């Protein structure tokens, strides 16, 4: 592998498979735990919605962090950064 700037390091198929499997097991275990919880239906529903919200916001945060680390493409306008001084 070269250490030249701009070259992307790809993860292996095994690492990708492990990440997908881990995510699937975690979601299934959480869903089963919420379903088996001895609480009212509205409490289980609230927990299920909260888990889905956490998952979607985690994906969004990971994408934003990745995009910031990759930096703007050459020739592209700089990204909006409200907290950075100009």
Features:
about 90 residues, 2 helices
Please render the helix and strand layout as text:
Elements lengths: L12 H24 L4 H30 L16
Quickly give the structural class.
Answer: mainly alpha
Q: Report the uncertain regions.
A: none
Distance separating the two termini: 36 Å
Q: How many DSSP E strands?
A: 0
The proportion of residues in beta strands is under 5%
State the helicity in percent bands: 55-70%
Helix and strand succession? HH
Rg over CA atoms, rounded to whole Å, is: 19 Å
Q: What characteristic shape results from the CA principal axes?
A: flat
Give an overview in words.
The protein has 86 residues and is mostly helical. It has two helices and no strands. The protein has helices spanning 13-36, 41-70. Helix 1 (13-36) packs antiparallel against helix 2. The longest helix has 30 residues, at 41-70. The mean pLDDT is 85.
Brief characterization of the structure:
This protein is mainly α and 86 residues long.
């Amino acid at each position: 592998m070269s250490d030249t700037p701009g070259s992307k390091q790809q993860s292996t198929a095994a690492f990708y498979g492990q990440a997908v499997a881990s995510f699937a097991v975690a979601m299934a275990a959480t869903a089963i735990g919420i379903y088996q919880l001895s609480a009212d239906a509205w409490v289980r529903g609230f927990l299920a919605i909260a888990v889905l919200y956490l998952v979607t916001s985690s994906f969004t945060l990971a994408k934003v962090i990745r995009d910031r680390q990759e930096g703007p493409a050459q020739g592209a306008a700089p990204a909006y950064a409200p907290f950075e001084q100009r």
